Amino acid sequence: MSIGSGFYGLANAIPRKHTVLQDFKNAGLPPLFFRYEKAVSDFIGIGGTFFFHVPSYKWNKTIEAYNYETWTYEPVTYEEKFSGLSVGLLGRVNFHFATTKKSDTYFGAGIGYEFYMMNFESEDPLASSRAINRPLPFSGELVFGWRNYFSDNTAFYAEVGYGKMLLNIGLTIGLNN
Fold first, then answer.
1. pLDDT tens digits for 53-79?
2. What is the pLDDT of residues 9-22, one digit of tens each?
3. What is the pTM of this model?
4. How big is the CA angle at 163 (ends 176 and 177), to the nearest 5 degrees?
């Protein structure tokens, strides 16, 4: 069983020195992952992933608006917010290779359901506030992972690849050892 969190998602994709989006802040909670894996052979493990994520991003958008009284363009700043909830449950398979007593490398793939609800709010009169929905409620992950055991049944893990986050780290505890 594993518990972990992710890094490098949408909050890192926005440049901090963006000319339109200023004062970008990640005010949400990072995703939490709970994973279970059962070995079916020395090289294959199957299980599942449950994740929970409450993202919230805030920024100020500055645009040039025409002032009809002074007949000039002037900067106007509007506050915008993107927030929501993401909960998912995925089936997963891991293919283990180059495994030793202290180190375990693997390739993992998963697919499943994700409840995804996001809201966009803006003070800009030309940008409408709206709920952003996905057309299909599916989620997937494709990762390369590594576990480093520091006791017989406890390991630090790191995964990189396509998923909820680009980098996941956490703690793995073996329940049957």
1. 998 889 898 889 899 999 999 999 999
2. 654 555 555 666 77
3. 0.79
4. 5
Q: Which is it for the CA torsion 15, 16, 17, 21, positive or negative?
A: positive
User: Which residue ranges form the domains of the chain, and what is each CATH number?
Assistant: 2-173 (2.40.160)
Q: Report strand pairing: 56-67 vs 29-39.
A: unpaired
